[in-house]
Amino acid sequence: MTDSEKLDLIIKKxxxxxxxxxxxxxxxxxxxxxxxxxxxxxxxxxxxxTGVKADLERLHHSDDLILDEVERVHMILDAHIxxxxxxxx
Length: 89
Prior knowledge:
Shape: rod-shaped
Structural class: mainly alpha
Distance between the termini: 121 Å
Order of helices and strands: H
């Protein structure tokens, strides 16, 4: 192999390496964008979860209030059933 052939081979390999490096840079840039998108989506999910937790807490509170009211009405009905003086039938 002559010096000229060796030089041509080295140049081809260097050009190939440059192309590979450019491809890697492009892929890394794409990954950075993808990661930025993932971070944005995760932040949105965290915000959504905070809202869901608040909604769940409100539902639990409402559930407790409803249960308390049902128990109160039940006690009134029990008292009414036991008070035979109020029954006309």
